């Protein structure tokens, strides 16, 4: 009898194969004192573990075929950089000496301090970065404790054509198993935005995460179906289910081949409407990867990671060099830099808030609110972005704006920054476009005002939906309320796009809705002409655009926006997607 388990589909596609259960022994970390005379020996033991962790990751990287996309190798590069970073390679040494404790405990203490920073974050992408910390720390801890991966090696030898079921997997695990012929993954833990999930999507491996107790419910070697589209796994499927999913696999293969034919072609609708497809960027190591994709530029560069896990903010020159590198990499394609979006919910190690705390951090001192309160943090970033604008087409956009006073203060600081640069004789683009992110309902309702004050608008759907519906999609109890198709959300998006059209102000979208092909036809019909998304989704979205008729969609969406019932809206959106 078939058993169906549900989770979160993070990488689309279907796979059929035998189950291989992979569990590592849990690591137990004990604290014990180290005599002062042996402290340097303990430091040396820790440094040797760091060196071995680097060697392991480099070996994994060397095993990756030379023709593999740089986007994929970057995940191992990111873990290598974390091993080399002082917050993991040096800070524990200071703890060993100060606390006179063993290396394992010092590393655990540093890990706990880092994870605490990420756990309080509201941004789902940043919040899941603690997974990478855990992956790297666990690798070092296993070396310190002399834990071997014999089971891992044994499993790799028999993994070709199998589906791995595990409590959790690191990007290194994913890559090694992919190279050995694993065809799908199921994990008990995990999130949509984790690097493990992103890597699985990049490799095109069907993956379902968050399948609680999967290792307990499933049996070694039993037949499994993984459907990454709908986030389900079926154990011991019957013949009719096998036939159905085999047809799905063949259909997906044909679709993949069709998507490849879109490379190099413009995104243009059937009635000749050109659409700009941009990419979202977060980390420095992503730059080399996304330039390989067929994107029109960068629609969102998050700058938070430049400021995190350090005792002092990056100065103007460091930021300028980072932005300059990005501009050179994109060779004339526009780059949109979002100013710092950090605050009470995304804590910095830098002490700027004078002990300020907030009972509801998502509604607290963050983004432009913090930047206006702390111009010593904001002004160097403004000057760095302006200086970089002399090197190529840059747009600057500001998050979390909600009222006229903030807009006036922002423009005054931009004018001040330009005056400082003129006085120093430093070049910049006097006409560099300044944009506002529309992610607070008040801003969407006031979109007509914002459209007259800014050169462009960008809709951040992740926060807009959260604030409109008063729900956190990461909350296990209330996440079901997070609905991109809620009529209130659709009306706020429509208000923003209409205001842009009325005042000739370009409107883009950089939230997750923009990269979800289920919503592409809807957004085209609403009048959206610029989408920004994760690079791997570009071809999927372009495929929908190139077979869409905007004139027809506009009429259909006009009727859809008059609906209020959730079921009716979903049915209408599905009808838009039937071409």
How many beta-strand runs?
Answer: 16
Looking at CATH, which topology of the largest domain would you report? Answer: TIM Barrel
Strand content: 5-15%
Counting structural domains, the number is 4
The largest β sheet comes out as:
8 strands, mixed
Helical/strand content category: alpha/beta
Q: Name the CATH superfamily classification of the largest domain.
A: Phosphoenolpyruvate-binding domains
| CATH architecture type of the largest domain | Alpha-Beta Barrel
Name the poorly predicted regions: none
Q: State the helix count.
A: 25
- Record the strand order, biggest sheet: 1-8-7-3-4-5-6-2
- The average pLDDT score comes to 88
Question: Could you please describe the fold and organization of this structure?
Answer:
The chain has 579 residues and is α/β, with parallel strands linked by helices. The protein folds into 4 domains: 3-24 and 149-242, Glucose Oxidase, domain 1 (3-Layer(bba) Sandwich); 36-144, PtsI, HPr-binding domain (Enzyme I, Chain A, domain 2, Orthogonal Bundle), CATH 1.10.274.10; 274-432, TIM Barrel (Alpha-Beta Barrel), CATH 3.20.20.60; 437-579, Phosphoenolpyruvate-binding domains (TIM Barrel, Alpha-Beta Barrel). 48% of the residues lie in helices and 12% in strands. The protein contains 25 helices and 16 strands. The strands form 2 sheets. The chain has an 8-stranded mixed beta sheet. Strands 15-14-13-12-11-10-9-16 form an 8-stranded parallel beta sheet. β4 (163-166), α9 (171-179) and β5 (184-187) form a beta-alpha-beta unit. The radius of gyration is 25 Å and the shape is globular. 43% of the residues are buried. The model has no long low-confidence stretch (mean pLDDT 88).
């Amino acid at each position: 009898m078939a058993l169906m388990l549900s989770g979160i589909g993070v990488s689309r596609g279907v796979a059929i194969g035998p189950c291989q259960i992979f569990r590592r022994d849990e690591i137990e970390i004990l604290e014990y004192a180290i005599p002062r005379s042996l402290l340097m020996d303990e430091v040396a033991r820790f440094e040797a573990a760091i060196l071995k962790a680097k060697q392991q990751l480099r070996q994994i990287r060397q095993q990756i075929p030379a023709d593999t996309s740089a986007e994929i190798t970057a995940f191992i590069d990111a873990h290598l950089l974390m091993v080399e970073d002082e917050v993991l390679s040096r800070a524990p040494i200071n703890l060993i000496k100060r606390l006179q404790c063993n290396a394992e405990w010092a590393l655990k203490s540093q890990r706990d301090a880092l994870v605490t920073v990420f756990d309080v974050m509201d941004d789902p992408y940043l919040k899941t970065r603690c997974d990478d910390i855990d992956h790297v720390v666990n690798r070092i801890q296993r070396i310190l404790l002399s834990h071997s991966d014999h089971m891992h090696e044994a499993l790799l030898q028999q993994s070709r054509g199998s589906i791995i079921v595990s409590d959790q997997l690191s990007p290194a695990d994913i890559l090694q198993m992919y190279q050995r012929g694993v065809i799908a993954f199921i994990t008990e833990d995990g999130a949509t935005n984790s690097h493990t999930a992103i890597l699985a999507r990049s490799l095109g491996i069907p993956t379902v995460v968050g399948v609680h107790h999967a290792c307990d419910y499933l049996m070694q070697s039993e037949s499994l179906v993984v459907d990454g589209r709908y986030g389900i796994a079926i154990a011991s499927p019957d013949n009719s289910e096998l036939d159905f999913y085999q047809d799905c696999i063949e259909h997906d293969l044909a679709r993949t081949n069709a998507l490849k034919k879109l490379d190099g072609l413009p995104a243009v609708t059937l009635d000749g409407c050109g659409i700009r497809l941009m990419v979202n960027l977060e980390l420095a190591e992503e730059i080399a990867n996304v330039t390989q994709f067929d994107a029109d530029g960068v629609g969102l560069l998050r700058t938070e990671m430049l400021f995190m896990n350090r005792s002092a903010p990056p100065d103007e020159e460091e930021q300028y060099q980072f932005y300059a590198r990005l501009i050179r990499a994109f060779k004339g394609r526009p780059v949109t830099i979002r100013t710092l979006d950090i605050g009470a919910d995304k804590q910095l190690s830098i002490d700027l808030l004078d002990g300020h705390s907030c009972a509801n951090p998502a509604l607290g001192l963050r983004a432009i609110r913090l930047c206006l309160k702390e111009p010593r943090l904001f002004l160097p970033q403004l000057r760095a972005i302006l200086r970089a604008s002399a090197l190529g087409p840059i747009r600057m956009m500001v998050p979390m704006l909600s009222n006229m006073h903030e807009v006036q203060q922002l423009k005054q600081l931009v004018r001040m920054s330009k005056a400082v640069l003129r006085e120093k004789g430093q070049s910049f683009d006097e006409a560099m476009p300044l944009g506002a992110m529309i992610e607070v309902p008040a801003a969407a309702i006031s979109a007509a005002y914002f459209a007259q004050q800014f050169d462009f608008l960008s809709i951040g759907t992740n926060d807009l939906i959260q604030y409109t519906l008063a729900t956190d999609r990461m909350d296990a109890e209330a996440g079901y309320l997070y609905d991109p198709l809620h009529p209130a959300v659709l009306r706020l998006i429509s208000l923003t796009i209409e205001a842009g059209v009325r005042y000739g102000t370009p409107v883009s979208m950089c939230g997750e809705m923009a990269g979800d092909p289920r919503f592409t036809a809807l957004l085209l019909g609403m009048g959206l002409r610029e989408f920004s998304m994760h690079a791997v989704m570009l071809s999927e979205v372009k495929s929908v655009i190139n077979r869409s008729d905007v004139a027809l969609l506009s009429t259909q969406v006009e009727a859809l926006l008059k609906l209020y019932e959730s079921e009716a809206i979903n049915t209408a959106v599905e009808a838009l997607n039937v071409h």
